[in-house]
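User: I'm writing a short report section on ligand binding and want a predicted complex to refer to. Could you take this sequence and zinc ion and write out the structure as tokens? A short remark afterwards would be nice.
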Amino acid sequence: MPAGRGWLGESMITVKLLQPLKRVVLAAALIGCTVPQPIGAADTAPRDLGRTTVKQIFKDAVPGWMPPDQELHFWFKEELDAYVGVDSTSEWTDEEALEVFAALSRIRTDLPGLYKAIFEESRTGTTRHLSRPKSPPWTNRNVAAVFVIVSSAFQPPDKIAIASNYYSLRPDSDTANAYLNIPFVGLNPAVIRGDVPGLGPSPIYPALTKQAARAQYFKEGLADTLLHERLHAYITQFYGHERLFAALRAAVPQPPCEYDVEESLVKQLLLETYAQGKHAFSESFLKYWSDDQSSLAAKVRESPCYKQLQQEGLFNGTLLKVDSY
Ligand SMILES: [Zn+2]
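Assistant: Sure. The structure tokens for the complex follow:
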């Protein structure tokens, strides 16, 4: 049984990981949630939901470390099945908030196979993209493709990163072992602004000012962040269905596998996919992350965790099987 409230993973830039939170399966009935319409409707402008709270939109949601009754400005884009909530202290304009939807649309156009697998097909809790499938003890479905929160409150103060993900598990809905959960991605506006030395867009674009690096991040890094964090959440969603994912999410008392291994696998899959995409990311962006991944992979290959997974034969196949990029 999945037990707990969610899983927080962090960005490409920091590599620490919180322990999976030991959770309690809630006995309460599922009430008052807003279920979006099926995907496939004609493209429309994002719907402005005004100032409200995560709790008002999805009762029982746990948006990372942010209180669920914190008021944010929310939008929902039906065509993408995606929510965006922006904290007023983030200093993001409405136009910048809508850039999140634009970034998702770009991924969907440029990398349709990967986008579909991660954001769309996962919604039902079944997947045909696993390399090492095993019998699932439960089904984790999603209420939406992604729920993005732009607020520094999403992360605990000791786990600051450009972004995090939190897969918020919720009570049973219609059957005993089918859960309807929320894949949250938190963007840290202070890190994106360049307020935290060594983190955020500036290390990727060292020749640019903080403001210019932030602007460039909106054009390409944001899409990568959304894919990256959502992929971590995908591993959480399907860890009951996949042997490698299960090893990466090993429960207490067995410690979770070293986070660097997962980080390296996520980066590797994305870089391989980007190499096939036509124009999703610039050469300088890809060079930065290729170099970063090369040094991380070299380190990871020496780790006991990697060697153990290798001995267990868990690196057969790719992290995620997609038909095409
Ligand atoms: Zn990561």
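A remark for your report: Residues 197 and 203 are 9 Å apart (CA to CA). Strands lie at 8-10, 47-53, 71-77, 82-86, 139-142, 146-150, 163-168, 178-187.
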